[in-house]
Amino acid sequence: MSEDRSTAESLRSTRTYGQVRCMNPSCMGRITPDPGAPKAKCPRCGSEWRIFWVKPGFPRVKGPVWETSQKLAQEKWAAIQAQAQQKKEEN
Amino acid sequence: MALDRKVAIVNLSTGKIDIKPISLEVRKKFLGGRGLAAYLLYKYVKPGCDPMGPDNAVIFSAGILGGTLASAGSRTDVMCKNPLTGLLGSGNMGGFFAPELRFAGFDHIVVLGKAPKPVYIWVNDGVVEIRDAKNLWGKSVTEAQWAVREELGDPDIKCAVCGPAAEKGVRYANVMTGIKNSNGRGGGGSVMGSKNLKMVAARGTMDIKIAHPMEALEFDKRYIEQITSAKVNQTMGALGTPFIWGATNSWGGLRTNNFQYNQLLYCDEIEPESIDEWSKKSVGEYNMTACFGCQVHCRAKYKIPDTPLARKFGVVGNYDEGPEYTSQGAFCCEPGCTRLDTLLICNHLVDQYGVDNLEIGHMIAWAMELYEEGILTNKDTGGLELRFGNDEALIEMIHQICNRSTPLGNILAEGGIRAAEKIGKNSIKYLVHVKGMGNLHSDERATPGLALNIAVASRGSDHLRSRPAIDLYHLPVDVLRKIYSSPVPYDGPLSSDHTEYIGKPWQVYWHENCYMAVDCLGTCKYHTTFLGATLPNFEDWSKVLYYNTGLEMSPKDIWDVAERCNIVERLFNIREGMKKDDPYKGEILVDRYFNEPARRGAPDVVGKTIDRQKFIEMRAEFYKYRGCDEDGVPKPETLKRLGLENIDKEPSLV
Amino acid sequence: MEPKVLVINHEKCTGCRRCELVCSVYHEGVSNPSKARIKVEKWEWEGLYIPMTCRQCIDAPCMNVCPVKAIYRNEEEGRVHVDHDICIGCRSCVAVCPFGAMNFNPSEKRVFKCDLCSGEPQCVRFCDMKAVDFVTPSKESLIKKRNAAKKIADAKKLATTMSYEA
Ligand code: SF4
Ligand code: SF4
Ligand code: SF4
Ligand SMILES: [Zn+2]
User: Fold this and answer.
1) Most buried residue, B66, B123, B240, B311, by most Cβ within 10 Å?
2) Which residue range(s) make up the domain with C156?
3) Are A11 and B479 within 8 A, CB to CB?
4) What is the model's pTM?
5) Cα separation of B295 and B226, whole Å?
6) Do A6 and B271 touch (CB under 8 A)?
7) The predicted structure's pLDDT at residue B123
8) What fold does the segment set B448-641 form as a domain?
9) Which residue of B has its CA nearest to A52?
């Protein structure tokens, strides 16, 4: 019976442990936090995350590091506003 | 046999009870659970009826795998015409009611008419009775359950019960079972209240014969392992569903301050880990509890801490379960509150009143925005400072709505669209809903696939009908391809990027069938391709179904059942007035999704809105897969293919 | 070798009742908790669930009371056994069991109890919490000692943190 594995069962090999994904949607890079570390920074996009260890070897993102995430969000918002302003002026 | 359970048609106006078998033909067409319930609803509800009147039906259903070895065969579906939306009302709860109903010999209890005075229905080993509920009426959700056990002298009775909110006629009252298992979103409790029906109580000792017991046990072991070994379920088993809320808030996918923002900031106190810490402190190290036959155990237990707020409302030390992610949504991000005691208190109150947490939180958050915009004033609120982040006002409003004890509470108990009509002054512009049902706590501005899901969900804005949640994991296209080309081929586009629009219609369509199938089986969504990409679906169910019931259904056969049942729900909605672009009864998002950009969250979320044109195109593509014309109406050939062409004319198959 | 016994740690129990389910399927081929040899007693309003089953007593009351000596102890497997060829169905054992672990099946008119699934207890196999476990009695007391000691240590911490720091 173990031979006829369903699609879902065959996909089990794609599971990864010990890593979290960056929560920035179009980044989603894999981050490997140092064992037990309370924070981790995404090497790809610079977002910074607070880490909780469900159990040893099993990290999860608890939430953003608020200061970093606030700063990045505000910068992005300002850039969007500036762009919109520029567009307005061009028209 | 797992297939020999019956249907009871109970007319509360006449007192007549009909017991009917479910033929094999009907099983193969609808399986059971939500699917067969949709058919019964279509046949037994008078078209165009007043949902709070005697012509509505409320249907309690167990799935075909309820009470069997299948992992978590625990779910109860309750269906009716929803008093909130006037369209399909359907909820789903875990706990222990559905298995007990099956041990008592029944899969579906269809309740019609209206009792002249409060009654309850007692289902025991093949016998159904209508009994006087004078000792139960007026009692809270839990008190009523303990009281019926006392009355009938059996501590193992399981109940599907409504609470005081339903008795008072709140239009979004739940059916509940146990401490907190909630059949929400469907208005089933409200319909029970309107029929003077306090509960269905069940107790049974009848066999459910397992077709191939030893093979079933062996396969089950493997099936459960597949489920419990997934990371998502291990996290859920440790932190419960709050982890979903936490993950979504991390990137900015939660509606905050009604819909002004998309992330609740500095909310460490109500993050999953903090809830877990308090839960363990208050009940001990092993703090999780489970539904029938479930090894994931996603529900925490807790006692309310001794705080000034808890003291003020008289709930210090009260025991409850949860809170679920929906309560974090309803009582944290939507009203902009960040306190743990507030969350635990509100969660407890809605469990006791038997009211939908998402809807009441959404109504209060909306009222808060109206208050801050000056549309509601102190005159309307009786002096209550209904501002975002006012914890006390939030708790106070829950009481006022559930008791309909103040003018504003009374208005908000009617639901968003009716309330907006009464309040006027453009208040409707602030209401975030689909088909008249308040959006859950998620904010889909950055996720077009999820936005399409809430727009087309059959019971109104909702994530549990077709959400392609794994879309958020950035899975490689070849993995997506594997999942989404089974059990029917798909070679159209797919994208790993969840801010994209392509490929999403097929995903929503696929998940709509997947979740319908789960609801027909009567098992839990956390045990399928909802939050984890490697969890069981059609192929695996084909085996579970065979070993447990003996029914031979290929994965494609199960898919076809799901298609059929989804079409029946759609036909019901169309019959009751759904039109795709109707702002109140349509499959469209409110303007705020298209016009107001998201301002918080991860950098790539900031600035996002839904593109209206692309959204309309996605919806059209979805209709095509669903076998519908451009208005979302099923085509004649679709009905023919699914054997539904005579659904209006044929006498009910059950 | 010291025979193993079922050990129940009710604090770990999530109340899922899978143990009841697999027990009845394994023995009767049906899902029916009323035919299971194990039953989870619940006090839902405090979140307390206690799985109850036969303790395979050394000086078993059921064995002592049985008028036709249908009940005996299999020392090797460490279990109390009912011989249905001898049993007359008087239900004296049901009446006398202090744990309610001897049951009566009214349709088949015979008593039934936990038989440890002939050495491979299904309830243990399926209970993911291991709230029911299968260990030797001496191991059981060692585990108990350690857990009890931990509780004493924890009690102090708990007492000082019970009220929530708002
Ligand atoms: S299987 Fe385990 S956790 Fe579930 S009820 Fe039985 S003893 Fe408790
Ligand atoms: S049946 Fe009752 S008396 Fe007999 S051994 Fe078991 S628990 Fe003891
Ligand atoms: S050991 Fe076997 S017979 Fe005894 S309770 Fe467990 S499953 Fe039932
Ligand atoms: Zn990143």
Assistant:
1) B66
2) 136-166
3) yes
4) 0.95
5) 11
6) no
7) 98
8) 1.10.599
9) B273
Give the pLDDT of residue A15.
79
CATH number of the domain to which C125 belongs: 3.30.70.20
Burial track B69-104 (b if 16+ CB lie within 10 A, e otherwise): bbbbbbbbbbbbbbbbbbbbbbbbbbbbbbbbbbbb
B291: closest chain C residue by CA? C16
Question: What is the residue type of C55?
Answer: R
Query: C57-104, pLDDT tens digit by residue?
Result: 999 999 999 999 999 999 998 999 999 999 999 999 999 999 999 999
In chain B, what are the domain boundaries? 6-203, 241-438, 448-641
DSSP secondary structure, A14-29, as one string: G---S-EE--STTT--
How far apart are the CA of C154 and the nearest CA of chain B, in angstroms?
10
Looking up tokens 């459910």 gives B208
Cβ–ligand 3 contact at C121 (below 6 Å): yes
Mutate to test the pocket of ligand 1, among C6, C7, C127, C134 (most ligand atoms within 8 A of CB): C127
CATH number of the domain located at residue range(s) B241-438 in this protein: 1.10.569.10
Judged by CB atoms closer than 8 Å, whether chains meet at B103 and C33 is answered as yes
Please tell me the distance from the alpha carbon of residue B316 to that of residue B153, in angstroms, as a whole number: 30
Q: How far is B131 from B119, CA to CA, in rounded Å?
A: 5
CA B208 – CA B229 distance, rounded (Å): 28
Inter-chain touch A25–B602, beta carbons under 8 Å: yes
Q: How far is the CA of A21 from the centre of ligand 4 (A)?
A: 8
Lowest-pLDDT range of A40-49, B399-408, C116-125: A40-49
pLDDT at C152 over 90: no
- How far apart are alpha carbons C66 and C96 in whole angstroms? 10
Residues whose beta carbons lie less than 5 angstroms from ion ligand 4: A 22, 24, 27, 29, 42, 44-45, 47
Domain count, chain C: 3
pLDDT at C119 over 70: yes
Query: Which residues lie closer than 8 Å to B308 by C-beta, 6 or more apart?
Result: C166
Does residue C6 or residue A10 have the better pLDDT? C6
Residue located nearest, by CA, to atom 6 of ligand 2: C54
| pLDDT beyond 60 at A88 | yes
Angstrom distance (rounded) from CA B328 to CA B276: 13
The answer to whether residue C119 sits within a structural domain is yes
Ligand 2 binding pocket mutation candidate from C99, C114, C115 (most atoms within 8 A of CB): C99
Same domain for C46 and C68, yes or no, is no
Which residues of chain B make contact with C164, given a CB cutoff of 8 A?
Answer: 278, 281, 305-307, 340-341
Q: Looking at ligand 1, which atom is closest to the CA of residue C51?
A: 7
- For C127, the token pair is 């209970």
How many residues are recorded in chain B? 654
C48 in the same domain as C4: yes
Q: Do C31 and C59 belong to one domain? A: no
Task: Report whether residue C55 contacts ligand 2, using a CB cutoff of 6 Å.
Answer: yes
**pLDDT band for position C162 (cuts 50, 70, 90):** very low
Residue C141: its pLDDT value, please? 78
SS3 assignment, position B234: helix
Chain A contacts of B271, Cβ < 8 Å?
Answer: 62-63
C43 interfaces chain B, CB cutoff of 8 Å: no
The residue whose CA is least distant from atom 4 of ligand 2 is C62
Q: Is the pLDDT of residue C1 over 80?
A: no
Q: Do B602 and A62 touch (CB under 8 A)?
A: no
Top-confidence residue, C151 or B425? B425
Nearest one of B74, B327, B178, B98 to C47, comparing CA atoms:
B178
Going from the first residue of chain B to its last (654 residues), give the mean pLDDT of each consecutive group of 10, the final group possibly shorter: 89 98 97 98 98 98 97 97 98 98 98 98 98 98 98 97 98 98 97 98 97 96 93 92 94 96 96 95 95 97 96 96 96 98 98 98 98 97 97 98 98 98 97 96 95 97 93 90 96 93 97 98 95 93 97 97 98 98 97 96 93 98 98 98 96 94
